[in-house]
Amino acid sequence: MTQQLAPAIDRAYARSFVDSEIRPDADAWDRAGAIPEELLDRIAAAGLWAPFLPPEFGGAGIDMVTLGEIHEEVGRGCSSVRSLLTVHTMLSWALQRFGTDAQIQQWGPELATGRTLGAFCLSEPGAGSDTAAITTTAVPHNGGWLLNGVKKWTTNGQRADLFLVFAQGPASTIALLVPSNAPGVLVNPIDDMLGTRSSMLAEIAFSDVVLGPEALLGPSGFASGMVLTGTLDLGRYSVAAGSVGIIQACIDACSAYAAQRRVGGTALRDLPLIQAKLSDMVTDVRAARLLLAEAGRLKDRGDAATIMATWIAKYFASTAAARHASEAVQIHGANGCSPEFPVGRFYRDAKVMEIIEGSTEIQRMTIAAEAYRKWEP
Amino acid sequence: MSNDTTARILAFITNRFPQADITDTEDIFSLGYINSLFAMELVMFIEKEFTVTIPNDELRIDNFRTAKAMTELVDGLRSAVV
Lengths: 377, 82
Ligand SMILES: Cc1cc2nc3c(=O)[nH]c(=O)nc-3n(C[C@H](O)[C@H](O)[C@H](O)COP(=O)(O)OP(=O)(O)OC[C@H]3O[C@@H](n4cnc5c(N)ncnc54)[C@H](O)[C@@H]3O)c2cc1C
Fold this sequence. Notes:
The structure holds two protein chains of two kinds.
Chain A: H1 11-22, H2 26-32, H3 37-45, H4 64-77, H5 79-98, H6 101-113, E1 118-121, E2 137-141, E3 144-154, E4 162-168, E5 173-179, E6 185-189, E7 202-211, E8 216-217, H7 224-260, E9 262-263, E10 266-267, H8 272-300, H9 306-336, H10 343-353, H11 360-372
Parallel strand pairs in A: 1-4
Antiparallel strand pairs in A: 2-3, 3-7, 4-5, 5-8, 6-7, 9-10
Helix pairs in contact in A: 1-4, 4-5, 4-7, 4-8, 5-6, 5-7, 7-8, 7-9, 7-10, 8-9, 9-10, 9-11
Chain B: H1 2-16, H2 36-49, H3 67-81
Helix pairs in contact in B: 1-3
The complex binds flavin-adenine dinucleotide.
The site of flavin-adenine dinucleotide has 20 residues of chain A, from strand 1, strand 3 and helix 11.
């Protein structure tokens, strides 16, 4: 009798899942503006929602380097699906890091299996990069909290079951776990975005939402900023990985196209200007992948240097993805502007990577501050 | 043991901010450039360096104000484990 072993959740496993379940339909989902429920179920069945959670939660306990590889593979297939994984990962990580035993018991297995899908609510109509400007409030109320405010651009807000909401608490910004079906939560879909069009964005209004004391995730006061810093760090890691996936998808699409398209009797792939574009893509994807892996290794070691390494990986990978996705459209000519080829989607999705989880400008400021840190003005 | 802990904490802070010439009882928040990024780095450093887990209710500013306070926190967490 041979025992059926569960497959290892790693890059090869994710690659084969993406090639069979995601890549063939990503353009159709992009046009429809939604990810079908069946795919969400298949991701759950494959154990890919939060495989880094420990086995006692029902996760696979995989390391962060492997998680980065999985998010890269998913990003190669579809940035919208990767976005859903990103925000679910952020909430799941925050719960694992800061949750009380009771919170972990209530939500851990739910998130590990994907029975409950998470989303991340920080941005507001009037506050994006400037996170200190959020106006959503959490006021102490009957031993718990009263939540009021409006969040915008919430990825998977249309579908998620549990929101990680950042609000101004009595002394500092605090994080709250808010079920989407709590009375007073109103979800308004946001459609027709430029990129990641099927990531089911929403604006979410919280109007006199009454929460118990168990809604508070993590410390309040001095260390409450850590919940946000840590959660965004994981989100940034996932977006860096997704950006590496976009560059790889550009290479795959362009090398296939350039092999069959001919101009003036010559295959596109033999033109030196086209080769220059491909060689830059190949070089940058390797560099980005290495930066990502380095950030992942530092995470696995619990090394504080991972935070800056992740900023740098995301900055490099997202700007390279935007540049190369633009060149990928260029290589495809008019075909690149048509729905017949996926590169138009890569181009629109790559632009989003430069805005989310710390825009390019905010990253440059943070990375420059690192360079300046050691020198007195 | 504690002296060594304090020295390692001070070394981490001055490695990040070489211009900060601080003693073990000086309030690091009074330096003016401690932000939530550094707070996260500091907590991660302490957890990794001294193989401890800092529970939520110990993540209070008073536990992180000075190298001495952080040393006491580490000593307390270590003796709780033993
Ligand atoms: C597809 C998509 C999905 C998203 N999903 C989520 C989500 O799930 N949850 C969530 O909370 N948010 C989400 N967001 C919002 C995203 O986090 C914000 O868009 C981002 O933080 C930037 O904020 P903003 O759009 O308000 O731009 P602003 O902060 O208004 O900035 C506008 C421009 O000014 C630049 N800028 C800002 N400050 C400075 C400065 N000091 N110096 C120089 N330039 C500066 C910015 O880089 C940007 O280019 C999503 C956004 C998109 C597009």
